[in-house]
Amino acid sequence: MSRLRGAFRPEDTAIIVYLVTISVTVTLFHKGVDHWWIYVLIHSASVLLIIGWVRYSSRSENPIIRFFRYWYIIFLLTVFYEQIDAFILGMHGHYLDRYIANFEKGLLGFHPSVWMERFASPPVTEIMNIAYNSYYWLIPILGLSLYLKRDFIPFRRMVFSISVAFFISYYGFILFPVVGPRYQLAGLYNGPLTGYVVTPLQQFIMKYGDIRGGCMPSSHVAVALVILLLAWSYRKRMAIFLTPLVIGLSIATVYNRYHYVSDVVMGVVVGLVAFYWGKRVYSLEKFSAKATGSSGR
């Protein structure tokens, strides 16, 4: 048992805590969720598989297995994201957009995404979507830079921090399901946003890869902020390049009508929590690795 505990890393614990929490939540709030028990079974089985995988992969010297030992959580994040779509309304039974839309209209006097339409043009929309689409490359760019240089503790900190950001966001979708302005405020826009190359690609991704109700908080903003802050910590030249992209991404979430400003603000909060949580956890981990003479592998 002690050897198994020693094989576990903070990021392994994070994904198991998330899976258990989701299983309990779906069990308690499954009214209207078709075949809810299947998702509980899937998440419960995933916990057992992860425990077995951690035990097996931690003892292996095979470079391919060791690669997946580091990266497996990143690959699983998309799988668990797509599953939320099935039970996102289990707790409330309906979307809660009206609360956010009315709050922002009352506070600001206008709907931000509708107000931003005055700046819309194909060139601006294309730039916004280039920034938004950069989200899909942030994790691989920083991750590969750290992994290939054998910066294992920083890499593991990255995995832990983005996992925390994702898992808080995923659970937030269930606590406060929101579909976003593009649906809630559809009748207030003058027409669709058009661009050139990246814009239709991004619209295709959102049409077929996005879940309905996963807006609060913005996981895009949360994770992008984590990656940016980690880049400033470990790869400052990369951070200079990423900074305008992450700023543009945050603006694009509202411009593209995917998110309310409130989603973005909460995404920033989640990103900061995840970053500093990871900093705290892996400061202790780095100290432990030095004390034991381990490389952090």
Please give a quick description of this structure.
75% of the residues lie in helices and 0% in strands. By secondary structure, the chain is mainly alpha-helical.
Task: Summarize the structure in words.
With 297 residues, the chain is mainly alpha-helical. It has 14 helices and no strands. Helix 3 packs antiparallel against helix 4 (63-87). The protein starts with a helix and ends in a 5-residue tail after the last helix. Helix content is 75%, strand content 0%.
List the helices and strands and how they pair.
Elements: H1 2-7, H2 10-28, H3 36-58, H4 63-87, H5 97-108, H6 112-115, H7 122-133, H8 135-148, H9 152-175, H10 181-184, H11 198-209, H12 219-234, H13 236-255, H14 261-292
Helix content: over 70%
What is the radius of gyration computed over CA atoms, rounded to a whole number of angstroms? 20 Å
Figure out the total of helices: 14
Distance between the termini: 20 Å
Record keyword descriptors for this entry.
mainly alpha; 0% strand
